[in-house]
């Protein structure tokens, strides 16, 4: 079985929630036209809820760009898998 190509990107420490909304609104119609390729964006935690909500009924995959390996603890600034 052939693997389906994927075009994916993360945003590093860029985009406010408003910027993420604007970017996602522009991305969704373009991604709908992408044939034969999956499109994914892996965004900062601060934008994940909103981008995920916007992409929910689209072909775009939204995910977290990183997470910490511990489930909980005194790890300032980290996001665990259960928090996602």
Automatic annotation (TrEMBL):
Q: Does the keyword Isomerase apply?
A: yes
Gene Ontology terms: biological process: gluconeogenesis; glycolytic process
Keywords tagged on the record: Isomerase
This entry's Gene Ontology molecular function terms read: triose-phosphate isomerase activity
**Top EC category:** isomerase
Q: What is its EC number?
A: 5.3.1.1
Q: Which domain of life is it from?
A: Bacteria
Q: Which InterPro entries match?
A: Aldolase_TIM, TIM_sf, Triosephosphate_isomerase
Q: Which PROSITE patterns match?
A: TIM_2
Q: Does the keyword Isomerase apply?
A: yes
Tell me the protein's name.
Triosephosphate isomerase
- Provide the species name: uncultured Rubrobacteraceae bacterium
Taxonomic placement: Bacteria, Bacillati, Actinomycetota, Rubrobacteria, Rubrobacterales
